[in-house]
Amino acid sequence: MKKIALFTIIVATVNCFTTTAQNQKNMKKVLFVLTSHDKLGNTGEKTGFWTEEFAAPYYELADQGVQIEIATPLGGQPPIDPKSADPASATADTKRFDADTALLNKLKNTKKLSEVNEADYDAVFYPGGHGPLWDLATDKNSKALIEAFYNHNKPVAFVCHAPGVLKEVKVDGEYLVKGKKVTGFSNTEEAAVGLTNVVPFLLEEVLQAHGATYSKAADWQPYAVEDGLLITGQNPASSKLVAEKLFQQLNSKN
What we know:
Layout: H1 2-26, E1 29-33, H2 51-62, E2 67-72, H3 92-99, H4 101-107, E3 111-112, E4 123-126, H5 140-151, E5 156-159, E6 170-171, E7 174-175, E8 181-182, H6 187-192, H7 203-209, E9 213-214, E10 224-227, E11 230-233, H8 239-252
Parallel strand pairs: 1-2, 1-4, 2-3, 4-5, 5-11, 8-9
Antiparallel strand pairs: 6-7, 10-11
């Protein structure tokens, strides 16, 4: 009887390890790319990434078992737009973020964008904030990374100002957004925050100039567009919606 019991324990243990290994193998892995730029044009003010646009999709995916790694052009701590840390901009997700010491420490140690490899991930997600318009929109490593994800049939997702990162991204010699349905921070929203003449370009206009079919909802309302592998969201309130669409795509690839 003792031998049978021991055998049963051994089998159960092996099955447990096998199941755990299989679960880890099936676990999806997403790369988040944040800006390293902290200057808001020539205003003398600071910028960076917008907290809600990072926190909401991060928790939406992480809470469902998705592994997330973070990269920035310079590596290390990415700048946070101080306005996004204002209590007036707080949400349940940003409050959770503010108290999440593990995630805050993780942010201090982001990878350099030049050192990440598309093959290690199942998708890429770009949170916004004004910072990406200055660095990621012209970053050669970012462009190559997005092109690699797209060419390997992996979802690429962007929210708010982050679709501006697609400004110079091309696939087969054509702008990736050409002929695609997209959204992003609108001209009217940019005017509402008083930065029309500060930003290096207006996202809505650039997307349209490069052949995209741009659409939007009312200012500050949640709105996301999915066109094949390309997922875009209009503003901070759209962050979780973009993550939900991304998660659905990840699940469909099981």
